[in-house]
Structure formats: C-alpha cells, structure tokens
Amino acid sequence: MIGQFQSAPVAVAPRHRRCAGGFTLIETLIVIGVIGLLASLTLAVTKRFITQSEIRDTRATLQVVQAALREWESLADRKLLWWDARDDAALRDRADLHGDVPDIFIITEVLEAIRRARDARTVLAAIPPHALHTYRAGEVPAWIKYRDQLWYGEFLDQLTVVDAWDTPIYATHPGRLWRPADANEFGPPDEDGTICTDNERRYGVAPGRQMVFVSAGPDRRFGIPAEYQNVYGDELIDAIEDARTDNIYSVEVTFHPDPR
Asked: Distance between CA atoms of 57 and 217, rounded to whole angstroms?
C-alpha cells in the first residue's frame, strides 16, 4: 500500500545565468577606441585653434612694423636707402642699410632707423614685448649661423622681432631700378620696375617698391626652398604655393616668374 501513494515530483524552477556586472573585453576595447578618437579630435581642434591664434598675433606684429616703416617714410619723405658693393663711398655714408648684411640682421637695421625718428618710434611701441629680442654679448641665439657670427658684434644691444614660434622675422627690400642692360644678369624686372634680388626670389616681391616683413610660419621654413629655386614647371608652382600659404607677410606679395 505504501508503494501506491508515492508523492508527485516537485517542479524545479529553471536556473538563470547571472548577468555579469562589467563590460566584456570587446566592449571595453570599443569604449577605449571611442575615447581615444574623441581625445585625438579634441587635440587636433585645440592645436588648430592655437595655431590660428598664433598666426593672427604674428600677422598683427608684422603689420605694426610695416606701419612704423610707412610712418618713417612719410616723415623722411623718402624710402630707406641701402647700398650694394658697386656703390661709391658717398652713397654708403648716406645709406640706412648695409647692402651686404646677412638676411637675419636686415630687420634690426630697419628697427634702428625707425627708432631714430621719434614719431615713427611711437608706432613700434605697439609691438608686444614677447615679440622683441635684444642681442646680448655671450648669448648668440640659435638662429645666428656660424658664418653670420662675424656680424654679431655690430648688433649687440639692438633689437630684432620674433614670431609666435620664436623664429626671427626677415625683411627684404626691393632692388634698384631695372635697366635694359640688367636683362642678362637679373632677367626681367619686377612689376614695380626694379631688379629682382635673391631675397625677393625667395621671400616674394612686395608691390610699389615696398619693403616686406615675413614670418616663416608654423613650420619655420622661409620662402621657396633652395632646391626649388632653379626648377620650372609644376615643381616650382607647388613650391611657390607652399611658400604663399605657409609664410606670413606684412603685405601681399607675388613671386618672380624667373626663379634663376
């Protein structure tokens, strides 16, 4: 009898797998990748913003120097005079700029000429202090090349202007008035009727016989690289476009059509 009254089997609820409390490895890698992408985008945007701000600051500094030069020219009723090796001693004595001074010191000569004129000097006061550098004895800056150090002593205690990337500003002046006899040596004249100097070929030609002030820009390279100055065609066009878009100028410039 006892065997006839067996208890019915008890139903057992199915067991559920307990959910994990964290991310799986794949999910973690995806999250890390997304965070990395967002961080890189943020850094890129921030860097671009900073670069654009530096470009604006540098352009403003260049325009201050250009304005000071124009004020000087207005007061003197002439442009700055410079001499070259073929000029006589009398012209050298009257000249404001050395003709054979290394490129790096041209702007220093310009600043000294402007500072001697009181009214023009007041315009220079608008240059932010961080953009000014004074040449000191025993502290030859890295941008003064060994071959130019012989000139360094002549510019002690004088100023130069640096851009937002601590690269000195260059200045280039137009050549003398072009003559037909110059065709073989210098090629065709610039648009303003002057010969094209080596510096103008590299840094660009300013209109109206103006001096131009130029920053190397974020990549710290000036003008057309030397390896492209003797080529023609697409390579030269590309090099000119790089110089035009990367360098920063105080006035709009053009490039000489004959890059010899």
From this structure: 11
